[in-house]
Write a sequence for this structure.
C-alpha cells in the first residue's frame, strides 16, 4: 500500500517560505530607502553650540561695546546649509534695559581677542561642523556700556539661515546668561574702557528651534 505526503502541508510550507521572502524583501527595501535618505537626501539641520565663555570688549577706535563669542555651528543633515547672519540681543534682567548687536567680524584665528575679517555667511556641507569666534557690535555708534551694573544679563543669540524656495525665514536660537558679580564689576572699574579683562563664564538657558518660523529642512 502506497502513501502520499499531505498536499495541504506542502502547500502551507511553500506559502510560508514565499511570505517570509516577501517580508525580508520589504524590510530590506525600507532599510535601503532610509539609508539613502539619511546619507544623501536629509535636509540641512543646523544648530549652534556656544562656548562656556565670552569676551567683553570695548573697541579702542569706536569705543563701542562688543562681545566676542566662540561658536560651533553644526549641520546634522545630508544636504549643505548656510547661516547668513547672527543677531545678539542682551537684556539686563533687573532694569529691563536691552541692546542689540550684530555679527560684523570674525576674530583672528591665531588670536581670538583681535578682529579678523568681516563676517561672511557660514556654509556647511552635509554632516559637518565649523568653529568661529564671532564679533558682535552695535550698528553705528552706541555710547555707554550696557554692562554697567551688576546683575544677570540674558543673551539671546539668533542665527539666520539661508532662505530658499520662498519658504519662511528660518532661524536657530541659543539663550544663555551671564551673572555680573560685584567682584567682576570691580575688576571692570580698574580698566581704562570699563571692559571685563577675562573670559566671562556663561550658563546655557535654552537651545531651541521655534516651531512656527523655524522649519526642519533648512536650505532645501
Amino acid at each position: 500500500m502506497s502513501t502520499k505526503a499531505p498536499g495541504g502541508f506542502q502547500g502551507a510550507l511553500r506559502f510560508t517560505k514565499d511570505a517570509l521572502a516577501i517580508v525580508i524583501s520589504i524590510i530590506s527595501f525600507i532599510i535601503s530607502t532610509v539609508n539613502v535618505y539619511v546619507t544623501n537626501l536629509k535636509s540641512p539641520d543646523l544648530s549652534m553650540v556656544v562656548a562656556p565663555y565670552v569676551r567683553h570688549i570695548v573697541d579702542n577706535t569706536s569705543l563701542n561695546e562688543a562681545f566676542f563669542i566662540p561658536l560651533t555651528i553644526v549641520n546634522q543633515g545630508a544636504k549643505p546649509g548656510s547661516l547668513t547672519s547672527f543677531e545678539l540681543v542682551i537684556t539686563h534682567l533687573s532694569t529691563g534695559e536691552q541692546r542689540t548687536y550684530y555679527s560684523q567680524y570674525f576674530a583672528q584665528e591665531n588670536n581670538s581677542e583681535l578682529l579678523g575679517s568681516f563676517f561672511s555667511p557660514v556654509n556647511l556641507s552635509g554632516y559637518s561642523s565649523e568653529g568661529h569666534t564671532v564679533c558682535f557690535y552695535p550698528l553705528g555708534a552706541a555710547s555707554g556700556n550696557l554692562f554697567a551694573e551688576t546683575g544677570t544679563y540674558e543673551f539671546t543669540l539668533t542665527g539666520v539661515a539661508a532662505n530658499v524656495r520662498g519658504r519662511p525665514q528660518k532661524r536657530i536660537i541659543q539663550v544663555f546668561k551671564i551673572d555680573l558679580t560685584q567682584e567682576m564689576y570691580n575688576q571692570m572699574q580698574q580698566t581704562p574702557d570699563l571692559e571685563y579683562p577675562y573670559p566671562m563664564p556663561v550658563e546655557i538657558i535654552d537651545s531651541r528651534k521655534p516651531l512656527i518660523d523655524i522649519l526642519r529642512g533648512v536650505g532645501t
